[in-house]
Amino acid sequence: MSEQIAVRIPAELADGLDELVATGRFETKAEAIRAAIRDLVEVERRRAVGERIAEGYRHAPQTDEEEAAATAAAIRSIREEPW
After folding, report:
1. CB of 51 within 8 A of CB of 62?
2. Can you give the chain as a three-state secondary structure string?
3. Dihedral sign computed on CA atoms, order 52, 55, 60, 62
4. Is residue 15, in this structure, part of any structural domain at all?
5. For 22-44, b where at least 16 C-beta lie within 10 A, e where not — what string?
6. What are phi and psi of 10, to 5 degrees?
7. Residue-number span of the structural domain to which 56 is assigned
8. pLDDT at residue 82 tops 90
9. What is the pTM of this model?
10. In a domain, 52, yes or no
11. What is the pLDDT of residues 35-71, one digit of tens each?
């Protein structure tokens, strides 16, 4: 199921949208707008997840031992990278 939404946008955004289609980045204006909304929804979803994680740490902070273990694991991971 889909929903049709009528939206007015400033001329500058309309010009940018036209450019995205003209350069072939998107086939249609609708496709570009769907991609923008999809990206915005994903960014907001990730922000909300991050906030819930941060709230969990505020509620139950890491112990010194947990922080040391995480730091050691990060250092090992970096050293294992084939730079």
Report:
1. no
2. CCCCCCCCCCHHHHHHHHHHHHCCCCCCHHHHHHHHHHHHHHHHHHHHHHHHHHHHHHHCCCCHHHHHHHHHHHHHHHHHCCC
3. positive
4. yes
5. eeeebeeeeebbeeeeeeeeeee
6. -60, 155
7. 11-80
8. no
9. 0.70
10. yes
11. 999 999 999 999 999 999 999 999 999 999 999 999 9
- Is 6 a domain residue? no
Cα separations (Å) of 66 from 13, 20, 56, 57, 73? Answer: 48, 47, 15, 12, 11
Q: pLDDT tens across 8-30, in order?
A: 999 999 999 999 999 999 999 99
The encoded tokens of residue 48 equal 């909300």
Residue 5 falls inside a structural domain: no
Q: How many structural domains comprise the chain?
A: 1
